[in-house]
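Chapter summary example.
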Amino acid sequence: MLDKDFKYYLDHQKELLPLYNGKFVMIVNEKVVGAYNSMA
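The structure predicted for these 40 residues follows.
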């Protein structure tokens, strides 16, 4: 499943980068479920 979510990130990187630049993004089941300032 991790491979699937990473592929989602790679496929949508151009859309995600402006929205979440500098954030840690959590992607689950090919959906962004959170964006955080740190990994904690």
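To summarize the output: The helical segments are 2-11, 13-20.
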